[in-house]
Amino acid sequence: MQKLVLLRHGESIWNKENRFTGWTDVDLSEAGIEQAHKAGQLLKAHGYSFDAGYTSVLKRAIKTLDIVLEELDELWIPVQKSWRLNERFYGALQGLNKAETAAKYGADLVQKWRRDPHELPPAVTKKDDRYPGKDARYKHLTERELPLTENLKETMERVLPFWNEFIVPAIRKNQKVIVCAHGNSLRALVQYIDHLTDEEVTKLDIPTGTPLIYELDEGLERIRHYYLE
Ligand SMILES: O=C(O)[C@@H](CO)OP(=O)(O)O
């Protein structure tokens, strides 16, 4: 049996302000920093230890993993950062307040943009400052890989190559792995690991700063999963 730990970053400043975040690189809030420390302490109290960490190129996830590893005194382990673990790119919604957007466009449409795995939020143009092609950290991406908007299905399509190329081989080598990512990159991963239907994933919400433990069999099929609280 293998254990895999998935962790959504602690609360960010824009989670707190109820804004669509996506690839915007906002920092953790005070509460988010506290959540990250608590997650690390909880993992330590339950005897967890890691050989490898994986995170996105966004500071709310990077810092959360750092704080967790600091609590475990394992800041030395190799940590791989990839854009493929980033939050779902939220297009032209990024920066807008979720409640104000619901009041403007209607709660049903906004809920579809947020949770329907096939629904695409309004796109940014390549001239928009939010277009990732303008950000140095994405300069190695091809134009096709640079999103203008993304739904959960597309998020899954860019998360899975990273899962298969790096995380699966590490687990198969018996490494103890922690993946610190985002609400929707983790929803995509959970949909894949748990074989969830689109309807089931629509209802799935992953809380910030709460370790989600997966026990996997040799074929990396889920035996059980639970939150450490
Ligand atoms: O704003 C975002 O990027 C995400 C996660 O906070 O929001 P949502 O809950 O709508 O997926």
Automatic annotation (TrEMBL):
Reactions performed catalytically: (2R)-2-phosphoglycerate = (2R)-3-phosphoglycerate
Write out the catalytic residues in the record: 9 (tele-phosphohistidine intermediate), 87 (proton donor/acceptor)
The annotated pathway is: Carbohydrate degradation; glycolysis; pyruvate from D-glyceraldehyde 3-phosphate: step 3/5
Enzyme Commission designation? 5.4.2.11
Q: Which UniProt keywords apply?
A: Gluconeogenesis, Glycolysis, Isomerase
Annotated membrane-spanning segments are none
Q: Which CDD domains match?
A: HP_PGM_like
Which amino acid positions bind substrate, per UniProt? 8-15, 21-22, 60, 87-90, 98, 114-115, 183-184
- What Gene Ontology terms describe what this protein does at the molecular function level? phosphoglycerate mutase activity
Hey, where's the site called Transition state stabilizer on this chain?
182
Lineage: superkingdom: Bacteria
According to its UniProt record, this protein's enzyme class is: isomerase
UniProt xrefs under Pfam families: His_Phos_1
Is Cell cycle included in the keywords of this UniProt record? no
Biological process according to GO: gluconeogenesis; glycolytic process
Please name the InterPro entries in this protein's record.
His_Pase_superF_clade-1 (IPR013078), His_PPase_superfam (IPR029033), PG/BPGM_mutase_AS (IPR001345), Phosphogly_mut1 (IPR005952)
The free-text function statement in the UniProt record for this protein reads: Catalyzes the interconversion of 2-phosphoglycerate and 3-phosphoglycerate.
What family does this belong to? Belongs to the phosphoglycerate mutase family. BPG-dependent PGAM subfamily.
User: Mind telling me which NCBIfam families this protein's record contains?
Assistant: pgm_1, PRK14115.1
Q: What's this protein's name?
A: 2,3-bisphosphoglycerate-dependent phosphoglycerate mutase
Species for this entry: Mucilaginibacter gotjawali
Give the gene that encodes this protein.
gpmA
